[in-house]
Design brief:
267 residues, alpha+beta, Alpha-Beta Plaits, 4-stranded antiparallel sheet, 10 helices, N-reg_PII/ATP_PRibTrfase_C, YitT family protein, transmembrane, transmembrane helix, cell membrane
Length: 267
């Protein structure tokens, strides 16, 4: 929960110290709410609440109840910080504000995502899309928010919209660096206990294993190599399993450039 509070604090700081003073458009559902508030008699707050209802249902069904509940708690915490932290202009340079605002906001959002929650709105939509494709999460943030910002630019101010795109691009790179669930790794484990190791891995990880015969070049001992593709998030668990079952196993971890065929994406 401390991570969530810290992430929400960073979000509020990025808005009140950098983006709002520079008059850079907000991204995500906040930006949509601003557009609706301008075009209709509905206020920004009410629009934001209405927009989050179908997204909350999507998150409840596709991501999980705990995730959705904590996402709304994060929305409430962010709102609290936005209200108590004064809006202060640190720099008059709009580019500086766009870059620093994007970096700080992305660190906050990325930390919250890394520890299993979100800031609601576009976060949930991007997370659902990322679960069913090989594209990194930051790509979806950038694409969805780009549509929103371009719409705002078409209606209001193109210069501010373009600076907001700078913020979004910087933010999407930072989020991808923090949220690495999309990164796939291949582990090649040479062991003398293949059956025990396979059973232990399948108890904790839902991943396919390919078993190959192997032989020690020095010892001439017959062994087996277990090849398994995992996400970077699963690497810690895999290391623990190997150390527990066969602490003498030789393991080579390499980053996977691409996967073709069946691979479970919703873990």
């Amino acid at each position: 929960m401390i991570i969530y509070i810290f992430g929400c604090l960073l979000l509020a700081i990025s808005l009140n110290f950098f983006l709002i003073p520079a008059n850079v458009f907000a991204s995500g559902f906040t930006g949509i709410a601003q557009i609706l508030a301008t075009l209709t008699p509905i206020s920004t707050g009410i629009s934001l609440f209405i927009l989050n209802i179908p997204v909350a249902i999507l998150g409840w069904l596709k991501i999980g109840k705990r995730f959705t509940v904590f996402s709304f708690i994060n929305v409430a915490i962010s709102t609290f910080f936005l209200e108590i932290i004064p809006i202060v202009q640190i720099s008059e340079d709009i580019l500086l504000n766009s870059v620093f605002g994007g970096v700080i906001m992305a660190i906050g959002a990325g930390l919250i995502l890394k520890y299993g929650s979100s800031t609601g709105g576009v976060d949930i939509i991007a997370l659902v899309l990322a679960r069913y494709s090989e594209r990194p999460l930051g790509t979806y943030f950038f694409l969805i928010n780009s549509v929103i910002v371009l719409t705002a630019g078409f209606i209001f101010d193109w210069e501010k919209a373009l600076y907001t795109l700078v913020t979004l691009y910087v933010g999407s790179r930072i989020i991808d660096a923090i949220h690495t669930r999309h990164v796939k790794l291949t582990a090649m484990i040479v062991t003398t206990k293949p059956d025990e190791l396979q059973e232990a891995i399948h108890e904790q990880l839902t991943r396919g294993i390919t078993r190959l015969p192997a032989k020690g070049g020095y010892s001439k001992q017959d062994k087996e190599m277990l090849m398994i593709v995992i996400t970077r998030y699963e690497l810690y668990n895999l290391k623990q399993i190997i150390a527990k079952v066969d602490d003498k196993a030789f393991t080579n971890i390499i980053e996977t450039a691409g996967i073709y065929g069946l691979f479970r994406k919703d873990s």
